[in-house]
Amino acid sequence: MASAIIARGVEPRSETSLVSLKCGLMLEKPNTPGALMILTSTNSLSLLLVKRGLENAEAYVGLCLSVPRDANTKVRAWYSSSLRMVPSRTLEIICKFPNHDFTISHRPLNDAESKNLEYAFPSRKATEFCIVSVNLSCDPTVTGFGIPFSGENETIDGWINEDAPIQGTIKLTELLQQRSFMLLVQATGEQAEDFFGVAASSFKPFHYGYGNNHAWDMNRYNHQIPRNRGKGFSPRVHYDDFNQRDTALTQMHKIGDEPATTTERFVCLLEPEGIFDPKHWRATRRALKGDFAPARVEFNELIEDPDDSREPRNVTWTVVQLTYASDLLRRVDLDNRIALGLRRPASGKDRNYTPEASKDYRSALDTERIPLKLICESGIANERKRIDAVNRLSRPGTWPTVMANDTLSKGKRAALNDILIGQGLWRVWKTASSFRFPHFDAFDGVTAEVRDACLAHVFEDDRERAQEYFGKLHFGIGLVSAAPGMGKSHLASILITLLCLNPSIRKLYVSAASNVATDNILLRSSNIVESTVSTLAGAGYPVKRLMLVRGYNGKMERENCFKALVGTPFEEIGIWNSSPWRFEHSLCWWTLRALGSKTAPPLTSHDCAELWSLHQHLGSLVSATPKVFHRDYTDFIPLVRVARGLITPEEYLERYTKSFQNRSLTDLMAHVISCANVVATTPAASSYDPYLTFNSKMAKAVVFDEAGTLFRADGLLVFGNTPRPMIAVGDPKQLAPVLATAIERLDVRRADRHRDHPDLPTNRFVGEAEISWLSWFMHLGIPVFHLHTQHRMAKGLFDMMLEASYDDIKPYFKYSPICRPIDFPLGIKVEQYVKIKHHLPSGSPDSLLPVFFNTLNCPCRNYPDNPSRLNPRQADCIEKYLEPMMKELSIQPADVAVLTPYRANMRALQKRFRENQVLREVVCTTIDTFQGREAQIIVVALCVTAKTGPSFAADPRRLNVALTRHKSALFIFGDINTTRKSSYSHEDVSKSKEGKTLLDPNTMDRVFQMIRASRRIVNLEGDPDVDPDRYWKRFRTFSRFQ
């Protein structure tokens, strides 16, 4: 039996249950020495002595003051620190007594005190109480002070926000600074003494065991990680200190424990006859996750006189990974093999090499194996940037530098650091009691014309609320949370437009977690900007078009711009091109416009004033009477000439060196980007020039879209350590950030796992990824603006998920008038089709409902050594149902999208659809990649069955995405008994095999219960000939991913 990997690190500390005692605070009456008054609990104030130990934290004893928040959450809603997104109805301020640095004494009430007590509390006896005196030898730790608060009434609001005396007795700030407390406690003296006992080990400081240095250091990691193996740590919002926070946020992004030959990549040799060492197998799978992830191979063939080096080197080709069930891998045995697609280079001497190749798979089986070196991009560079961003929180110096001119920048930087520890602002207040974190009014300085033009795009139900919320942003931070179809990105686009037209902002940075999400928010923003500017200009308002740049990798932008200048075609995103680059709105596109190239739309005087000025200056360089407005501009003359056809590409290439070409184009792009109003990139791209300079020196505000999928470190990478106005938009109930190491175990194969030792994770801080950039601020107490009106789906189609996942918005929820079924003709046609064909019941006459297709005898499969699953018979059922329906109803492929949790199942569906003339253009993709998109008809292929259990498909966040992408109809294909016969355990949670998940079957259970109640279920029988069982029996029974 294989030896187990032993845990050596600090054990996670368990949570201890909350214990509390009711109490009152005895205070000396003002101007009456020796006379006491009692501050007691009322409906407006709760006073408790509390004793608690949170997970992985130092336990404490302290005094808790709790006051009710405003019950009206229509404009601002608050959430507790619970990761289950529990609304917060009260503000808790806790004064934690320093463990082992306080003394207590207690005594019974004297006669006078007993009479006063019985008079004040006629139902209580004096013997039920005692007087406890607490004396601290150092200042207490205070949490919850200074975070945004709106009280139930003006009196309560005054206690917290204006520091008015609480019930006419003592100010909150005076109370929290005390080192001596006299408490009237509802307990006996013995009970009180036992309550204050802090001898248990949980009252000692907790450390994760990774030290205080969190800077990127591969040598330290290679020793530190193995020494600290152990069970995973639970995620936290409130940390004891900044070291705990920085440990969790940096260690989360440490990639595995495999040694790296450099900090930028790792190298492994393909060994077809054996299995990689587990750590290399993990690393390779991680780097090649998904189709078409970029990688390279080196052949055992030298180029003697290479173009880019004096020394001979190996031939190198770009490769892309091909996942299981791809068309190119039909009938190919993939057991213990990694499938790659090789691309011949477009130019250079590497192109001349041709490897030995066979015409088909069968003939290749007998050929001699060729050794290859596989070079995968590890993403370490991006992880290092994330870790640097976390460390920047505790360092001196203001970033972004655009905030250096703010007179409050030092206080704001300290305040943000404390806020993100989760302790509130007490420490900042003690240091500078005069400091007040100012609110930000997004409408301040904006003219009435601009304000009205922007608000006109806001849905009517949200308009007044939006003006109130964004007119007073606490700490300058605005959070927008809403269920799908309620206009989150639409509102974000309006706010981007408003901030661009706000004279105090004008330039801002926009970011989203993925390239798709970044593309989406820029496109939406561009549409709103164009409409708003057109409206203002049409009314005679002096305004120019805004410049919105979609920034991609800087090298990619330069290469494509260079290709456009010399007449070489460039390739946009496609199946054999892993680059996400698109031409329109790219930095390349704007640079070509500035140069006056015919390959991009011409600029006019109505465009961005700064860019038009640059364009004019560049044009003057090659005019009949040349003028140089800036000494650096002389280097741009060749670029202007070749862009405008004044010299040929051949002349340009012959006259100027490559280094001059690269330098001049890089410099010009820096000038172009400085003209922008908006730069939108992923967080990774934001850490490289020219976007880094724009973000640091020019962007006075930041907007995040799909912030519920954004890592906290990614948010910090863009936001910095000194606050500026920031708006984060998303849905914390949809997909959380996806961590590369989320599913990895140190023992790759189950056979390697020792029954006497725990199955240990590669990354002990995986749980921290559950907290996104958006949910972090929500849990920290920043008020949230909710959208409540459904605008996308026909009435009735959101009801299921409203009950299953979004029941907290039910008091305010409604469908927009544009959601009447009569306005969804395709939905009505589909509803009539299924009702007639299957005699299904319908809901009310003015609503549409989902349909569940119960696929019988459709087993779920998975290939050995691959975590992904597929269900070929279910895919066959989907094809056979959709084809005749689409023909009969004349449904266009663009109106249909098929979603599935698993990549292998996606490929199985794509393979079948490509062979079908009707379905060839129908989108088939994973649920994760479709977030933020929509279609008229959504088909969800769950893939799993009662035998497999819900597994990865039961993730409530993933279900929330899958079952909310539709407009007119929702079809769900699956096994209706998936949740009935399965059992769940913590082991199932930790061993989900594809992506990170909170395996909570309750959401899927509720969905299935509502489907059964609706009786809209169609039974379909799988065809055994489509996917014979004998095919799968030929694989070894063992699989890493069983």
Label this structure with key terms:
hydrolase activity; 1042 residues; 16% strand; alpha/beta; ATP binding; disordered C terminus; 9-stranded antiparallel beta sheet; helicase; DNA2/NAM7 helicase-like C-terminal domain-containing protein; 31% helix; ATP-binding
Q: Which blocks of ≥5 consecutive residues have pLDDT under 50?
A: 257-276, 748-757, 981-1000, 1037-1042
Class per helix and strand makeup: alpha/beta
The level of helicity is 25-40%
State Rg: 32 Å
CATH architecture of the domain at 821-1022: 3-Layer(aba) Sandwich
- How far is the N terminus from the C terminus? 19 Å
What is the number of beta strands?
A: 29
- CATH class label of the domain at 821-1022: Alpha Beta
As for the CATH topology of the domain at 821-1022, it is Rossmann fold
Q: What is the overall shape?
A: globular
The fraction of residues in strands falls at: 15-25%
Quick check: average pLDDT? Answer: 84
CATH superfamily of the domain at 821-1022: P-loop containing nucleotide triphosphate hydrolases
- Tell me the number of helical segments per DSSP (H or I, 4 or more residues long): 33
Sheet of most strands: 9 strands, antiparallel
GO molecular function: 5'-3' DNA helicase activity; ATP binding; hydrolase activity
Organism: Fusarium oligoseptatum
Domain DNA2/NAM7 helicase-like C-terminal: 774-976
Protein name: DNA2/NAM7 helicase-like C-terminal domain-containing protein
